[in-house]
Design brief:
This protein is an alpha/beta fold. 49% of the residues lie in helices and 14% in strands. It has a 6-stranded mixed beta sheet with strand order 1-2-3-4-6-9, with helices on both faces. Strands 5-7-8 form a 3-stranded mixed beta sheet. Helix 1 runs parallel beside helix 3. The longest helix is centred in the middle third of the chain and has 20 residues.
Length: 263
């Protein structure tokens, strides 16, 4: 996996922590950090050592969105083709996060706004601190709320009415609202610590099977129940061909704890 220059990446026991690290500006994204994030998640498809990703921000905030000076101002000088290249590039980040087989956990403290809110939304699991505020504030800058998949994904997490309110008003969703509405799995004073603990637990599990679970969770959005059952039958049969399935059986027979290796 490539070493990023515009964010921090640490690996520990299969848990890869990605930290947006511009705390003096509440960790805004730049063209470079967008590209690096897309590259990391695309590379992860072929990386068996990375088992779980944790995404967070430095200095008490998650991410304030696109950098006003390094992204927003230059966009005003682009023509339609140039703007399309940018919006498609930002969408690639969400597609890469959803396509990588590894679960992605967002640890959200402080502000998660604009594209920062989208990164949290696109993660598989979200943990927040009581200070967390999540704002899909695209309308505040004269843009539509339909950005980077927000109109497709957010209603599936918190419901159509609640998503509509946030996308039409651009107001911040408080941490307690986010937990109550199902955006946050839970709140903790140390969301990053909780996220790393959860990530380590998931990383110790069957990696191939986790990837299949993530794939099915995405594919079954567009399936009827009968199609989903058939697809899951195929997925589970494939998992039964793995060595992890055999290890689990052998450990059960020996009354021991299985050690999964992801193959």
């Amino acid at each position: 996996m490539r070493t990023p220059q515009h964010l921090r990446m640490e690996e520990d026991g299969g848990v890869v922590t990605l930290t947006l690290d511009r705390p003096e500006r509440k960790n805004p994204l730049t063209f470079d950090s967008y590209a690096e994030l897309v590259g990391i998640f695309r590379d992860a498809v072929h990386d068996d050592t990375a088992r779980v990703f944790v995404v967070t921000g430095a200095g008490g905030n998650f991410c304030s969105g696109g950098d006003v000076h390094e992204i927003i101002a230059p966009l005003l000088e682009r023509d339609t083709k140039g703007l399309m290249r940018f919006t498609q590039m930002t969408g690639e980040l969400v597609k890469a996060m959803r396509a990588c087989p590894q679960p992605v956990i967002a640890a959200v403290d402080g502000i998660a706004a604009g594209a920062g809110a989208i990164i949290a939304m696109a993660s598989d699991i979200r943990l927040g601190t009581p200070r967390a505020k999540v704002a899909f504030l695209f309308n505040r800058v004269g843009l539509a709320g339909c950005d980077m998949g927000a109109c497709a994904i957010l209603p599936r997490i918190i419901g159509q009415g609640r998503a509509s309110e946030l996308l039409f008003t651009g107001r911040a969703m408080r941490a307690d609202e986010g937990e109550r509405w199902g955006f946050f799995n839970r709140l903790a004073d140390d969301a990053l610590g909780e996220a790393r603990t959860l990530a380590a637990e998931i990383a110790a599990g069957p990696g191939f099977a986790h990837g299949m679970t993530k794939r099915m969770l995405a594919m079954e959005w567009a399936m009827g129940v009968e199609q989903a059952i058939e697809a899951e039958a195929v997925a589970q049969a494939l998992c039964m061909t793995t060595q992890d399935f055999r290890r689990a059986y052998e450990a059960f027979a020996a009354k021991s704890t299985p050690v999964f290796r992801g193959d």
